[in-house]
Specification:
Helix content is 51%, strand content 18%. It is α+β, with helices and mostly antiparallel strands. Strand 2 and strand 3 (50-58) form a beta hairpin.
Length: 136
C-alpha cells in the first residue's frame, strides 16, 4: 500500500500555500474559538489542469507552512468519515454531534461540498486515495 506522499509525487500534485484566508476573514463571526486562535492558510492544490482551493488552519504553535500532504490528509480524513456515514444522524453519532445542532448541520454540509470537490479534483483516483493509502 502506497503512502500519501508517494501518491502525491506519482500524480504530480503540487500546492501553493498563502498565509491568511479571505473567506474566513469575511465570515469571522462564524469561526469557532479554536479557529479564531489558529493560523489561517489558503492552500491551492494542482493536479494537471485541475485545481482545488481550500481554507486550512494550524494551531498557533505550528510554525511550518502546510503543504499538499497536510491538506490532502485532512480532506481525505473528512471524506472517509462522510463516505462511511449512512446518514447525517450516523455521522453525528460518530463525531459526537447533536443531530439537532445547526452547527453540526453546517459542518456536515461543508464536508459534503468539500468531498464532492475532492472527488472532482482526484477524478478516477479518488477511491484509491481514500481507501488504498497507507498512512491516513
Amino acid at each position: 500500500m502506497k503512502t500519501l506522499a508517494a501518491r502525491i509525487t506519482e500524480d504530480g500534485i503540487k500546492s501553493v500555500t498563502e498565509y491568511g484566508n479571505t473567506q474566513t476573514e469575511r465570515h469571522y463571526d462564524t469561526l469557532d474559538d479554536w479557529q479564531k486562535q489558529a493560523n489561517p492558510w489558503t492552500i491551492t492544490l494542482r493536479r494537471g489542469r485541475k485545481r482545488m482551493t481550500v481554507p486550512f488552519f494550524t494551531g498557533p504553535a505550528i510554525t511550518e507552512e502546510p503543504d499538499a500532504k497536510d491538506a490532502l490528509n485532512a480532506l481525505l480524513l473528512d471524506a472517509s468519515g462522510y463516505e462511511n456515514a449512512s446518514s447525517f444522524e450516523d455521522w453525528c453519532s460518530e463525531y459526537g454531534y447533536d443531530t439537532d445542532s445547526r452547527t453540526a448541520e453546517r459542518i456536515w454540509k461543508q464536508v459534503e461540498r468539500q468531498t464532492k470537490k475532492l472527488k472532482q479534483f482526484l477524478g478516477d483516483k479518488y477511491e484509491t486515495y481514500l481507501w488504498e493509502t497507507g498512512d491516513l
